[in-house]
Description:
Layout: H1 8-21, H2 27-35, H3 40-50, H4 61-81, E1 86-92, H5 98-117, E2 136-143, H6 146-154, E3 156-157, H7 167-173, E4 174-177, E5 180-183, H8 185-188, E6 191-195, E7 207-212, H9 221-234, E8 235-243, E9 256-261, E10 264-269
Parallel strand pairs: 1-2, 1-7, 2-6, 7-8
Antiparallel strand pairs: 3-5, 4-5, 8-10, 9-10
Helix pairs in contact: 1-3, 4-5
Amino acid sequence: MHFDERRAHFLQDRLQRRLKECQLDSFYSYYRLLISSEGKNELASLVENLTVNETSFFRNKAQLELFHKYILEDLLRQKQARRDYSLRIWSAGCSTGQEAYTLAMLVADGLGYYYLRNPLPMEMPSPKPLIPPPWKVEILASDISYSVLRAAQQGVYSETQMTSVDFSYRLRYFDKIGDRYAVKKALKEAIHFDFHNLKTEYLPQRNDVIFCRNVMMYFDEAEQKRLIDKFWRCLNPEGYMFVGHAESLLGLTEKFAMVHRNSGTAYKKIEVTE
Ligand SMILES: C[S@@+](CC[C@H](N)C(=O)[O-])C[C@H]1O[C@@H](n2cnc3c(N)ncnc32)[C@H](O)[C@@H]1O
């Protein structure tokens, strides 16, 4: 994790909270604890405290529209022509799951709409499944924090967290339980939650689209370049990548081409020999 001067105060504050929790009186004794074998759990707690987990459903609508209306449509057409009915999307740094569930809803709707206009390659079973066969959609949602992954897997959200989810999505994809909204089982089944530290070398391969939004901004430039390179290798040919509104791949890589429509931006993988 990279903390520049603007975030030094945040780092100090969070470290001080952990020192208090551990009843230690100096940063040095805390450091000794972290590097000791007894300090493993504390290191995990520290990581939980240092990550910024802010997220929301349907975050950055222009970008999601680009994904939904153009990129998904393009991928479905190309894949169907090759009789490849698998689609793999990765929400890297998924926090409490809203991004992954948003993508699952968009893909389910996108596939449904695509087959309103194109013949399905096989008969639709009854009752109609969320993902029409023979398609297999896998949405991988990963994070470095176990506590956000637990919340994501639970998929239960408050009214405040649901503000950006309009009523038609609420009706189709959520059950109201008391004053909270629980993601329906069928939608959950399209998502696989897992722990991945984006700084490690081996990351999930063969993705058609990677969403890594509002994560890289906390990395330094060298680490951002390394990560973009790893993402390039983790994408299928013709794959796409999305970064956050305040982030960009410009100046960091030559291996992606920018795609821009109606204020939504994505990056398409360019085939280059490494
Ligand atoms: C601000 S949230 C962004 C959530 C979501 N992508 C969005 O844009 O709404 C950043 C997430 O990245 C995760 N993260 C930070 N460093 C990471 C790393 N090295 N590997 C994996 N996840 C990381 C944090 O735990 C946090 O949940």
